[in-house]
Amino acid sequence: MTTDIWAWVRDTHRQLAEAGHWRLADAMYELPDHATEGRNAQLDAMYPEAVASARALGLPWVEVYLRHWRMQNLLNKRQQGEAVMSEVVDLLDFAHREETLDCPQSVCVVQDFAICHARVDGPGYVAERLEVVGETLDRIEPGRACYDCLSREYSDALEDDGRAAEALAHLDTAAARMQAAGQRVSLRFHQARAGTLHLLGRHEEVLALMDTAERAAQQQGQEIDERDQRWGALLRARALASLGRVAEALALLPERDEAEQHADLRGMWTETVELLVAADAWANDAELGAVLAGWVGYLDAAGSHRPCVDLLLAAGRLALARGARTVALALAATGERKLTQLRRTDGVAEEVAALRAAAEALPVPGLPVPPGELAAHLAEAQVPYETGADLLSVALDRYQGEQAGATELAVLLATVLGGLGHARAAADLLWGRLDADPGSEVLTGTLGQALIEAGDAEGVRRLADRLADTSPADAHWIRARWAAAEGRWAEVLEQCGAMLALDPALINTRRLAASAATELGDHATAQRLYQELLEHARPAEETAPEEGHRAVQESDLWHLITAASANRDWAVVRTTGARLGMEFDLAEGPVDEQWQLVAVRTARTDGSPVDVAAVRTGPATARILPVLREDVPLNHGDVVVFAPALLEQPPAEDAPEEERRSWQPVFGLLTLLDPAGYTTHWIDGAWPGDEAWAELRERLGEADFALWAYSGEQYRITDPAQEGGTLPGVYAAVGVPPTASAAEAHALLHRLTGHWPHPMAWLALAKAAGADVARHEEVSERYEL
Amino acid sequence: MSEGAPIEPTPAEELRTTEVDLGGLVNVLATHLYSTPLVALRELVQNAHDSHTRRFLEDPDGDHRPLIRVRADAGRRTVAIEDTGAGLTEPEIHAYLATVGTGYTRMLRELTGNQELIGAFGLGFLSAFSVADEVTVTTTSHREPALGHRYRSRGGEQYQVEPVPARPRPGTVVELTLKAEHAHLADEQALREVLGRYCVLLPIPVHVGDDEQPVNSVPVPWRHEVEGDPHDARMRFATAFGRRFEPLTAFPVDPVEGVTDAVGLLWVQDGGTYGSSDNRDLAVYLRGMLLAEDARDLLPSWAGFIGGVIESSRLTPTASREDLQRDEHYQALRKVLADAVVDGLYETARLRPAAWRRILTRHGQDLLGAALCDERLFTLLADDVPVPTSQGDLTAGGLRAAGGGAVHVALGSGGGFEEMLYRAMRVPIARGDRYAVLPFLRRYAQLRGCRLVELGSEQGNRELFRDPERPLPPEESAWLAGALADRGEQLVPARFDPPGLPLVLVPDREAELKARIEDDQADARIPSAALRLARAFTARTDGTVRARLYLNLASPAVQDLLAAYRAGHTGSATAAGLLRSIKVIMAAASTGPAEGDLGAALAGIGTAVSALTAAVPVGLPDVPDSPGALPGPA
Questions:
Q1: What does residue B140 show for φ and ψ, rounded to 5 degrees?
Q2: Same domain for B192 and B244?
């Protein structure tokens, strides 16, 4: 059995690189680095390809190795728990198959498995973790690198059981064994030992240990990487804060941003901040509370149940100290829910109960105004969020009027809670309100919006199902908006159609349905919906401002014009345009006028955007000017419908004159209306001079051909008459109309350019025309085109 | 003539130099400090340059045409570095050529604050002995233009100085008689290449051999006002400098007030090398001389396609002067360079669309990864960078448009029922197993508010299957389950695309895992305590459902089957058998055989075909062959 993992990594790296699999070879070195340094984006970028390559090459050891390091990142750096349990179990299984059993990294997978249980509920799984890690430790030599990691894992389990002294003894025995076996004790090992010393209250020793351990590592030529620097600073800061050496602690404590970025720092960071708050050296404010609430939510979602409870208890203590009653109660509620996910609750259950009791014992603020006026008062007096939450909670409790008033308070409270980082509590509040006030559109709307924004598919479905019987239109509306948020346009139409069947007078529903129809390219339906919308909309003058969406808006008219243009319903284009104050040169027939130069934004065949010059021929139509490359699905003379919303804002009033003059409106392509059928061919050669070029353009134009130069002034070609000399060149596209064959185009170009002092080349066109290509090859070669 | 030990130089602090073990030091220089013997040449050119600067300082009004010329003579195995600078007087020879750890230039710089003086450690001259057996210095000081001196030493420990005729003009020639193992340095072509890079930023012309054109003749775009488009000047410089690749575009690095004085040029390289995607290439100059040839770590790690040159007087060299100390300024400069790359790419996208498209084509894969590391870069690249898909390279926008508003990405390396579904619909699928594709698209979807369908994940599966418009009556469900599902398969009525596909089997990964972990064979391979704990986990999954059989109620085939069943059509069992066979065959093709028996499924097709084509037995009524042909209700 190979026991030196790094020797194997080096060997494998070399073999992979020699065999040409250098990206996988690179990943062997870089992936563990990314994983342990917390460069999550880079890890995520590299991992799928690396694993796929390992599988494709049939290298199960490499697969174990890559999956293990990514798992280390997920468990340690990103503090994932339950969320990755099935992946860990799958990895455990994979790492113990016949083909992987001898892989030196398979042992470490056992550690991943143990860590995952530590995240889920460290104290709850103490016995199992000790057993799992102990059984593996028994099988390996202290000289192996894994002995170091596994020993730390073993001591962590002891610590979780409240046996810190035993943990320390275990670490020291392990260190002695490793040293006896000639194995160096890692810096991480010392950091783990520092953590144990902290639990024993031996803070001075933490400081001394970190110093000697880092020095020793450096003396052995090891660079203290960023991860170790952060941990070193944090371990010291916590020790210093524990010793009351506040200023030194403050100087070392990593910035909050770092804890934002590296989830593994958050627990210890919060612990240190709690000490600093107690020493009056850190502001215990709502902002801190919101950050901690966000972290609690993260751990909750990751299924890291035990760290979640530990963190929310800290957040709860801080909230109590601030007197933030509602926030403390929200945390207590989260704690109560999390307790049900723990295996062992002694200690924490009491703490959660104490949090609730203390929160309830906080003074209930008096209302400065009657509940019904509170919302206005909060805004006017700019009441801080946490105070606002407390006031709203009281108001909600005491409110006695109509349900709508209570719902308004609840919606506002939910918004405030959301802002304070308690998204789950906010949603729960609204769900709870739903029983009391099932018919409230504001309530279902707010809740629906919150669920859609959170991407909570399950919640959306639950809400819609719940509303389906009592207010089916609301249920359809939520499903429609959810489908729209996800771009499922056919479903949007389906849901909106169901709503319109229930109430044909709906306005916004038609707007959403029409935009879905437009997305689907169903312009007939879009036009019908906008026309119906005009019929059902209220007259603008009779509509109160807050009901503005029930009146016709200018954008409705524009959309109708767009849809009618796509449907060639020119009469509607004209009448609707007239409502917007447009004047048309002709009163009937297709709208085909010359308005202004615009650019139409479309996509190349690979999807990248490109702006194409065009003449606007109507409110939402334009004719394409240039002869285009094959990778743009439009060409000269094509008439297109565009969406008449500006994609780029015009330059500001004070922008330079030049910028303002050269600005052109850019519109998004909606659909191709009338293809002109031009084919693009290329000509290349020496620039014949302005006059000859203008003449060529004119003659081609007379034959319904088009010409578009692509080269600029810097384009120069080889002058065959002069060693090292160059000539100004031109590279241009010729648009051949559908009425002309390639042979005719070839002949016409010959006729028009044959007399030029330097011949032009059009190899591809000559080929297409079945003409002799030798001349064109010769020209290309001679002028080095 | 003096001989033997050097006279004691002043000031007093330099006295200690006499105690230096020169032999040992030279050995250190030769074997440890400098990575290549060429560095010795760099040091000597640097001394020649300093000598000119010194002359400008000491004799600002003199008639002084600065020039450095380096010659090599392969036959004699010599290299000579000649300058027309200040030259040395005899006391200066003793003081500066034989003194370690001080150096006149450093003293002068400290006195005058002149930043053009390069040398700093006083080791420069001594380094000559790391490549040469013998070093001769012939010099005439501009202060004593009538006198000439020649210093000569083998090994550097012992030296002699003798008078020689004055040189025609003040200045110095250092001639090295190379050690046998460094004979290859006496090659003017090699010198041109090396010095072209070392001296590219030196203001004083450096010639090799009898060349009229100095090796440093390319105008430095940030030093000189160039005529015409500054971009052209940058490209000329980058083209002349970039050894490995032609540049695709070049953009400036400008000093940032209060952060760094670094100035220079970065460029995007064309192409890559075999062996790594990290082709970062950054040369750092200090006061005009090359300090670090490969300072790639100053560039962001994602910028594997960037080359460049910068100069800064605030970077601190390590003692070897080939690397940089990772101090505060170094870290600040890293940030500045990362910004410069991003700014430069923005400029390119805006002003040079053709170059931008070439960059996207050439470095698309690296850019995908880079976009993840820098928010601004992501914004720039989100719509432009190509993503590998089942239908060639497409942008995320292209994928989205072709996917009907959703971006589809396959998590596995191909295969699977989901991909088959999308293939049938001709929807392009991004290759999630390629570098950076999945996280890039995740962020794209988040930013652009579009749906990302991850094929092969639970979420991806849920995306595919919509609930039926109406639930099926239990009795029909039961019949369908009996007719279509095998053991361990749960029938799920749903609607999905394409309608031509009547049913699809989706294995349950949790159940698969449970089966493997709870299998008796696991006892032999997985350590017992770990296995017990793993089984505690899998015990939580039910495991009786091995796969879900999604039945497409939007499929005409299924609708016809149901209609036939409702009408009591005798062919419905045959039709169901046919669908069941299709299910097994498709599952075998995409994910390997499930419960169903592939052989039996294939035979089932034959059975169905023969049932459908069998002659109607005499005496039986005609079997209606479609629901439409059924007699109406009486």
A1: -135, 125
A2: no
| B129 in Cβ contact with B31 (< 8 Å) | no
ipTM: 0.74
Neighbours of A342 (CB within 10 A): 19
Q: Where are the domains of chain A?
A: 1-121, 283-363, 597-651+660-674, 679-782
Mean local confidence (pLDDT), A398-420: 87
Q: Tell me the two tokens of residue B323.
A: 């690397």
Given a contact cutoff of 8 angstroms between Cβ atoms, the answer to whether A496 and A512 are in contact is: yes
In degrees and rounded to multiples of 5, residue A544 shows phi and psi of -70, 150
Looking at beta carbons, which residues of chain B come within 8 Å of A89?
513, 517, 534, 537-538
CA–CA distance, A355 with A324 (Å, rounded to integer): 12
**Topology of the domain comprising A679-782:** Alpha-Beta Plaits (3.30.70)
Q: How many domains does chain B fold into?
A: 4
B307 contact partners, CB below 8 Å, separation of at least 6: B238, B241, B242, B244, B245, B247, B266, B267, B268, B269, B279, B280, B281, B282
Q: Which helix (H) or strand (E) holds B325?
A: none
Whether residue B45 is found in the same domain as residue B141? yes
Q: What CA–CA distance (Å, rounded) separates A758 from A66?
A: 62
Q: What is the DSSP string of A148-165?
A: HHHHHHHHHHHHHTT-HH
pLDDT, residue B392, reads 86
Domain that holds residue B325: 230-338
Q: Find the closest chain B residue to A100 by CA distance.
A: B525
B window 457-486, beta carbon within 8 A of A:
462, 466
Exposed, middle or buried by CB within 10 Å (0-12, 13-18, 19+), for B520? exposed
Same domain, B149 and B47: yes
To probe the interface with B, which of A37, A93, A103, A119 has the most B CB atoms within 10 Å?
Answer: A93
B 517-536 → A contacts, CB under 8 A: 517, 522, 525-530, 532-534, 536
Q: Do B530 and A132 touch (CB under 8 A)?
A: yes
Residues of chain A with Cβ-Cβ distance to B439 below 8 Å are 41, 44-45
Chain A to chain B Cβ contacts (< 8 Å): 148
Residue A22 is nearest to which of B275, B397, B536, comparing CB atoms? B275
pLDDT tens for each residue of A249-285: 999 999 999 999 999 999 999 999 999 999 999 999 9
